[in-house]
Design a protein that fits this description.
The complex is a heterodimer of chains A (638) and B (418).
Chain A: H1 2-14, E1 19-23, H2 34-37, E2 44-45, E3 48-49, H3 50-60, E4 65-70, H4 74-83, H5 86-90, E5 94-99, H6 107-117, E6 124-128, E7 131-133, H7 137-150, E8 154-162, E9 176-181, E10 187-192, H8 207-211, E11 215-218, E12 221-229, H9 231-239, H10 246-256, H11 258-261, E13 264-270, E14 275-277, H12 281-292, E15 312-314, E16 318-320, E17 325-326, E18 331-332, E19 336-338, E20 343-344, E21 349-351, E22 354-357, E23 360-361, E24 366-368, E25 371-374, E26 377-378, E27 383-385, E28 387-389, E29 394-395, E30 400-402, E31 408-411, E32 417-418, H13 448-477, H14 484-498, H15 503-516, H16 524-545, H17 549-565, H18 574-583, H19 591-604, H20 610-617, H21 619-628, H22 630-636
Helix pairs in contact in A: 6-9, 13-14, 13-15, 14-16, 15-16, 15-17, 16-18, 17-19
Chain B: H1 26-29, H2 51-65, H3 72-88, H4 98-115, H5 120-138, H6 147-154, H7 161-167, H8 191-217, H9 219-222, E1 228-232, H10 236-248, E2 252-256, H11 263-273, E3 277-281, H12 286-290, E4 295-299, E5 302-303, E6 309-312, H13 315-324, E7 329-332, E8 375-378, E9 385-388, E10 391-393, H14 398-405
Parallel strand pairs in B: 1-2, 1-4, 2-3, 4-7, 7-9
Antiparallel strand pairs in B: 5-6, 6-8, 9-10
Helix pairs in contact in B: 2-3, 3-5, 3-8, 4-5, 5-8, 8-10
Classes of the chains: A alpha/beta (638), B alpha/beta (418).
Chain lengths: 638, 418
Amino acid sequence: MAPKGGKKDDDLAQQEVLQAVVLADSFASHFRPMTFQMPKVLMPLGSVPMIEYTLEFLAAGGVQEIYIFCCAHADEVERYIVESDMERRLATVSLHVLKSQGECMSAGDALREVEARGVIKSDFVLVPGDVIANLSLAPLIAAHKARREVDRDAVLTTVMARVPASHRARRGGEEKLVALSGETGRLLMYDEAVKEGWATKVRLPMALLQETDRFELHRDLYDTHIDVCTPELLVLLQDNFDWQDLRRDLLPGVLGQFEMLGKTIYTHVLSTEYAARVHDPHTYDVVSRDLLQRWAFPLVPDANLLPGCSYRCTAHCVYQEAGVSLARSAAIVRDSAIGEGTTIGERTVVEGSVVGRDCVVGVGVTLSGCYLWGGVIVEDGATLTGCICGEGVRIGLLAKCSAGTGLTLLGPGGHGRLWKVVPTAASLGFDRPVAQGQCDDELSEEEDEELEETNLEDVENEQFATAVRELIRDALRSADKDDAVENLALELNGLKFGADRTFADSVRAIVPPLLAEAASAPTKKAKVANLKRALEKWAPLLKKFVQSKADQRALVEGVAAACEQANEGLLEVFDHALKLLYDREDDLLDEQAILKWAAAVEEEAEEGSLEERLLQQADGLLKWLRESDDEEEDDDDE
Amino acid sequence: MRKQTISKKTSGVGCEYVGQSGTLGRLAHCTPIVATAMPAPSSNPLADLPPNVQQEISKLLAKLRRRQLLNSLDVARKTLEIMRLLVATSAAAQATDVNSLIKLIKRAGAVMVTAQPHELVIGNMVRRVLAIVRDETRDGGNKPFKAGDAAAASGGDAASGGEQTVHVAGPSLMSLLDAPEALDYSRQSLKALKGPIIEGIAEVMEELSTVSAHIAEQAIQHIHANEVVLTHGRDPTVEAFLKAAAKKRNFDVIVAETAPGGEGQQMAVALAEAGISTTLIADAAVFAVMARVNKVIVGAHGVMANGGLIAAAGSHLLALAAQHFSVPVVACAGLYKLTPLFPSGPDSFNMLLSPQPMLRYDEGLQGVHVPNPAFDYVPPELVALLITNSGPSHTSYIYRLLAEYYHPEDQDLSEVHG
């Protein structure tokens, strides 16, 4: 008996275990402020946290080992995995949570850390923790392996779905041109649209024509972000430590440096299966609808992935749990899910919405395309369109909240607060989105056109700002050294050239992280003192970057941004910061720059917006400046 | 007009939030919430069961959820295996008397049924096992052979059908007016009963393995030479039934394609390969050909307590067309599909599939609602005959079969009596 058992073990060892890596962090900020408090992957989608769908998809596809890599909120993700008994429920996989130990700012960093842990033994599936898909992995893996037989240098197979650019799933502004080899499906070009669609010309690399006799140019491919990777890819990422984003850096990197690296990428185009990713509020809306309309079958609300869920599907894709109290005249029209313990009042209409557990929806309420997570109270007569309401939000009597075609995020917490829009007395709504430029970091709301226009610039700015932030954070640790300013200036300059930024761009990016530390002080007085110290130390650095009037203006904007980013801890000392800069003897900042900024902001600022509050805060300073320079005021403040 | 005033009415509650919204910074300092929108993740409904049973149940549920186990015979077999494991390892869950065993079985059954409500055979098998437990307890584990098993063992031997009814155990017509037997299950020790119970489960498994054969045996009594038979979908029982008849008789089969899944197409190919003269028609042509048809034979996903069928979508239409032309509808289903529940409402025990086969996702037709139900409910009055592995019976006779195989106390698995 013994030798037989031994042989069996050998067989098992030889049998390849299919591994998967789930990135439980999207390294983006589309879901702020929700993601300040909870990891994105635990946000409920349909009826359960979205990571449930991802893991279920992998398990159904025959993956046996899943590594969940967490950065932000790692403990909460781990706790959820353990407490929800995930491994037992998935039944066929072993789950491992990898918590990031270093500073992990991007998917590239995450994979480098995964590589460092040495857990990956063979080809593996890589997905973000927000992918909803029902494709079967087996043929995909088989095709990948078959290609590897032919082409040893194939490091990656990306999965794309054919979705026309006009489809609602793509409306979020995902525009890209993809070129594939007609014969093999090799990826030859992956070009994300620049700012305003493509210019009149698209540049096709010559290699395209040399590599293959026939190539296909696609505008209708939707990137599902499901990848089948080889261990070589991890090595490649290790070597190219500056690759951060898998799409923006890795794909162009591998494709562009084919001559040098000699690695190839292939694309698997889905025919009938469903695969989508939730990366921003718009796609949250789209994917939720798709789930409710059963496109991702068998991933549907009534699959009841969580124990204790009891969703049943009735006609018109209306899902109800047991213990829902529905008034006689209430109408759940279609594509909606209602959780246990929820009460819905008379004459209320619910359409295309998910109402979580223990919500109270009053009389005559209209919910359309809304996602109420749990314990939400909607009082009588409210009309909500396209909203995501966090845990325990309360919507007032006759409230109206709509976001056109986009989605509004209502902040979680005991009482509803609109993110970014300060609710003044008796008003908690807006019918216009916050202009994109004013809140490029934390998108509170999206409106299609504006988003498409500014998306890429935002992304680039964001990337640059992230890099600057990291540099400065490192520099602050060794701030005591004499040459700290010089060194940092040198490095920042390098970065500025690398990213092709102007001085003004740099100043805007530099100021917030420099001032961020001051925000942590408990009192206003301490904050001012901190500010003073920080500015004294770093003013020479700023001086190097502030070269012109425009840069001075950028400096003011930078300070404003700092006040915005530090959770507004710096708001109350905004004027002090400006004053400190103004008072410096090296002419770092003159009154014209401040007044021009104020004039520009005054025109655009909405009532109750952050800019408005900044203006109020700086009111005294502005008055004083104007008085001291009468003529200028006439010119500027028209 | 950039902003809209929303709280038009001032009321204590309605305005509560507005004054509170001091600084936005507060948001980040709120007490952290952890995904409580979902049910408490720690609640494991299987916690009372032995760990290996928990694991097996999770595996079965995962397979069903992922649609990797579609044949209801396999589901029934797997459920029985779990039940057998549960009985065998019940000591690990501190079940020493029959009552606690019944509770355990019901708990396991309730969890599985809640998770997969449309997989009717799970509940059926759990109830069968419960009936076995109750029978064995009543008989003290020493009665060697009982009527329920007798019917199962003698299977589709239609000739002995008359004899079976004499043997009927449980609440038969004869005992209807007697006082209900009051058995205190909690006083019965499990030790001596375990063996007979497991034996009983093994007998049901044996029955399952012969279901198709027993039903197919009866084929020649129902299909006559040169008849035209209409069927749809791809039910393995019906397929075996037709193939068995084809060994002795010459007849024509018309298969409706069963869009959008196209199971009828596969069925037509399979029948043609077996040498049966087969015609494939569109579902829309069913009414047109019905006048030529002598018999409609359909499979069932479940046979309900009132004799109605839960069958592949399109069956109802088929049955109505048949009724119009006075063509008899014959349903073939194993006894394991006998469900002691009554259908309530049009959506009970139904399931919507993906709209994908009907409309591609990338077609971009937004706003179109595309329901794709898996099943139909066929009311009992449309079904002329039900052929099970214990012989043919009329749908109005179902209640007798139910009494034979199930115990009335087990109807509701979520309730635990005494």
